[in-house]
Amino acid sequence: MSFLPLRTERLSLRPHRSDDAGPLLGFYRRPEVARYLLHGPWTEDIARERVTRRLTRTGVDGPERALSLVVEHEGRVIGDVALWATDETGAKGEIGWVFDPAASGRGFATEAARAVLDLGFQRYGMHRVSAQMDARNTASARVCERLGMTGEGVSRQDWWSKGEWTDSLRYAELASDHPRDHGDAIVVSAVMLPDAGGHLLTVRKRGTTRYMNPGGKPEPGEDPAACALREVREELGLDLDPQRLELVAVRRTTAANEAGRPLLATVYRHPHLAGSRRPEVTPAAEIDSARWVDPEHAGDDDTLAPLLRELTAGGLSRARA
């Protein structure tokens, strides 16, 4: 978690600690804070239980698929912000926040939420992040508007909460809404291409030692799917059907051929090409060689790139039912 704590002009956002139960209880116990949340005011027991649960929410790419951060101003806990994945690929997420009323009116919620939104897009490569709230929660709605998130309307009486049907507001931001800075990460698109027997096509680029999924870096203004299709066509002579391209995952991992660099990959799957058990490929451009690998044994193959080994270990090379 070398990217934490997040620091803004006035705030520090860090993972939860066990001793955060007391400071958070100070405002979570207040009825006006819990009014539009899905739970009632906290007690001491609830505070300990909730904080314990949050201790493991240290990254959207981790087992919990969530990041929960305490917000501090001048060393005092004033709120918390969370970001979590809402689909199995990690391309979509949701953000939420709670702040001490004593810290209201100073723009802290907007400042903290902006930092976490940017993290979702720039570190985790999310395509879309939404925020949902009780339609009566005008304070959170104003935060969304200050963030520049797009209002997507009201869902009428779609949530049963605290003995009544309540309306919900939804806001969202897309990765394409603003320019994004991914730092030193290498941004790529990749495609998992199986043959009829389930073996995966892998490629090795000139001057490198690891085999990886076909794909590459996007051109300026090119979206991830278009990049994947172009790279496979240019480097392997295969024309894929855009409508059959299935999003598998958005992953941050270690680059195979550039030591010390992180890799931010949008990964797709495409069914095997009809007409032959194993399509004929013609390596071109940067590709030096291609080979088919059995995903059942890929996890132990040191000649494969880390991303490919991670994906096969997680069963993502197989088509969904």
From TrEMBL:
Annotated GO CC locations: cytoplasm
Residues of the Nudix hydrolase domain: 179-317
Keyword line: Hydrolase, Transferase
One GO MF term: hydrolase activity
Pfam families on file: Acetyltransf_3, NUDIX
Name of the featured protein: RimJ/RimL family protein N-acetyltransferase
Span of domain N-acetyltransferase: 11-176
Lipoprotein listed as a keyword: no
Classification via InterPro entries: Acyl_CoA_acyltransferase (IPR016181), GNAT_dom (IPR000182), NUDIX_hydrolase-like_dom_sf (IPR015797), NUDIX_hydrolase_CS (IPR020084), NUDIX_hydrolase_dom (IPR000086), Ribosomal_N-acetyltransferase (IPR051908)
